[in-house]
Structure formats: structure tokens, C-alpha cells
């Protein structure tokens, strides 16, 4: 049984999360009405974007906690975070994302 | 001994990964079909056999295998490996698996170990688990459908799902 966990290297993790946001939630980076968005109505686009934003906020809150609980070393941050978001997206766990 | 256990666990993992609600539903339907076939008379069975235009083999074992009425029990026996059901009777074995939660727990163990970390699980009294795996599941709970993570998590179950359990070191 362990009482104290090694500290998470916050800077390294923040950098990984920034990359992850760009990779996994690219639509949050783009301005509306890119070529890909054609055909979307304003409200649909906004709803989708808001949902993605809320999902990302949850993920960004959750991953540092999981990294800390699993005692992941800094060189494993990226792989761990990617794998966690992969299984999340694959199984659609975020069913209760508001 | 160790390798046979490893093989067993790998087979279990293979079966687990193919078992879902659709397979369980297929199993339920096949059991109903089996009951319906048992209720048929001999005449009806042989008439259906003729209708299927089966070539009757000389060998009695092959003949048994060719009997169309045996096909469903054979499929059921195969499905039983995946669903951990007693092939000969209804109902599942005592050890029930949560088809959605268990793969999630197994994935969490695996991902943590693959990236140089690990979760922990130890008995916290009355078989209830404590440790970082329980904390991680509680953390994920708000994102999961209601009732996905049970209130009481068993330490035996959590440790049974560890990928490195019983593996040769």
C-alpha cells in the first residue's frame, strides 16, 4: 500500500495535453465554415462544437488525475493519454457528457 | 503449469473480446430453437432431414454429425465457451462477468503497465477493493452510463483482470 504518489510533472503533462487537444479535437482549433463544415447549419455546428468542448474539458480534467493514480513516468504521458482517449472514443463511454 | 494457465487466460481473453449482448441474444434464441426441435416428432425430424437433402454417410459418427438436429447443440456448445454458460443447461456459471466493465478494467491495467505505471488494488475489508484502480473507476464514473460501475468493487475481480496475473516473470 502506498501513501504518497510521485508528483506529476505538470509542464510536461500540459504540453502533452496541448498536443492531444490538437490531435483529438481538431474542430476546436478551426474557425467555423471551413470546407469540411459546408452543409452544416449554424446551430448544428455550434452544438457539435460545444459538445466537443465539454468533452475536451472533461478529458483535460480527467487525464492528469489518471496519470497521477497510475504513477505514469513522464516519458509515458503521451502514450498513456492517447491510449486512454482511444478506448474512450472507441467504446463511446462519454455517454453522459452533458 | 504456468504456461497452461497463461494459455487458459489468453483463451479467456479471446472469448471475452468476442462476447457481447448480441452473442448472448443469439444464445438465448438458439436455446429456444433447441427446445422447439426437441418437441418435434421423429417423423417431423426425418421429413425435415429429407427436405434438407442431406447425403446419409455410412459411418455412425459422421451420421450423428450430419443429423441436422445436432447442429444447434453444436453451435450452442461453441457459444458456451464465449459466454461461460453450461452448454447442457440454461443459466450462466456462478462467476458472472460484467461484459462492459471488465474490458474497461482490463484496458486500464494494460495501458498503465504498458506506459511504465500501474494501478493498485487491495482488500479494504469485507472483500471490497481499495486502491488506485478503484479511485480511477470512481473518477471515470461520471462519464459512464448510470450503474456502469457498481457501488462495491471486489478486489478478487479487479486482480483477476490484471493482464500480468499468473504470467511467468
Structure in words:
The complex is a heterodimer of chains A (98) and B (169). With 98 residues, chain A is mostly helical. Chain A is built from three helices and no strands. Chain A has helices at residues 10-24, 42-69, 77-91. The longest helix of chain A is centred in the middle third of the chain and has 28 residues, at 42-69. Chain B has 169 residues and is an all-alpha fold. A two-stranded antiparallel sheet of chain B has the order 1-2. In chain B, helix 2 packs antiparallel against helix 5. Chain B is elongated and about 60 Å long. Chain B starts with a helix and ends in a 9-residue tail after the last helix. Chains A and B meet through helix 2 and helix 3 of A and helix 6 and helix 7 of B.
Index terms:
heterodimer, A: 98 residues, mainly alpha, 3 helices, disordered C terminus, B: 169 residues, two-stranded antiparallel ribbon, 2% strand, elongated, disordered N terminus
Mean pLDDT of chain A: 73
What is the quaternary state of this protein? heterodimer
Outline of chain A, from the CA principal axes?
elongated
Order of helices and strands of chain A: HHH
**Fraction of residues in H or I helices of chain B:** 55-70%
Mean pLDDT of chain B: 74
Uncertain segments of chain B: 1-6
Write the topology of this structure:
The complex is a heterodimer of chains A (98) and B (169).
Chain A: H1 10-24, H2 42-69, H3 77-91
Chain B: H1 2-18, H2 21-38, H3 42-51, H4 60-66, H5 71-83, H6 101-114, E1 122-123, E2 129-130, H7 132-140, H8 155-160
Antiparallel strand pairs in B: 1-2
Helix pairs in contact in B: 2-5
What is this entry, summarized?
Chain A is mostly helical.
Amino acid at each position: 500500500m502506498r501513501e504518497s504518489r510521485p508528483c506529476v510533472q505538470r509542464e510536461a503533462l500540459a504540453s502533452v495535453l496541448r498536443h492531444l487537444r490538437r490531435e483529438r479535437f481538431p474542430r476546436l482549433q478551426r474557425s467555423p465554415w471551413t470546407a469540411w463544415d459546408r452543409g452544416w447549419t449554424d446551430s448544428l455546428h455550434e452544438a457539435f462544437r460545444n459538445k466537443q468542448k465539454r468533452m475536451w474539458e472533461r478529458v483535460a480534467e480527467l487525464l492528469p488525475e489518471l496519470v497521477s493514480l497510475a504513477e505514469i513516468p513522464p516519458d509515458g504521458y503521451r502514450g498513456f493519454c492517447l491510449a486512454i482517449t482511444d478506448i474512450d472514443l472507441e467504446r463511446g463511454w462519454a455517454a453522459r457528457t452533458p | 503449469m504456468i504456461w497452461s494457465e497463461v494459455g487458459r487466460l489468453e483463451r479467456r481473453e479471446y472469448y471475452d473480446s468476442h462476447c457481447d449482448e448480441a452473442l448472448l441474444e443469439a444464445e438465448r434464441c438458439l436455446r429456444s430453437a433447441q427446445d422447439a426441435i426437441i418437441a418435434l416428432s421423429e417423423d417431423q425430424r426425418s421429413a425435415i432431414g429429407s427436405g434438407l437433402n442431406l447425403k446419409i454417410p455410412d459411418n455412425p459418427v459422421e451420421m450423428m454429425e450430419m443429423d441436422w438436429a445436432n447442429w444447434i447443440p453444436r453451435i450452442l456448445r461453441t457459444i458456451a465457451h464465449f459466454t461461460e454458460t453450461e452448454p447442457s443447461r440454461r443459466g450462466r456459471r456462478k462467476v458472472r462477468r460484467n461484459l462492459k466493465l471488465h474490458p474497461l478494467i482490463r484496458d486500464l491495467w494494460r495501458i498503465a503497465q504498458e506506459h511504465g505505471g500501474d494501478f493498485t488494488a487491495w482488500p479494504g475489508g469485507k472483500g471490497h477493493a481499495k486502491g488506485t484502480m478503484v479511485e480511477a473507476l470512481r473518477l471515470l464514473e461520471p462519464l459512464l452510463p448510470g450503474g456502469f460501475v457498481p457501488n462495491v468493487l471486489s478486489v478478487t475481480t479487479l486482480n483477476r483482470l490484471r493482464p500480468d496475473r499468473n504470467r511467468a516473470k
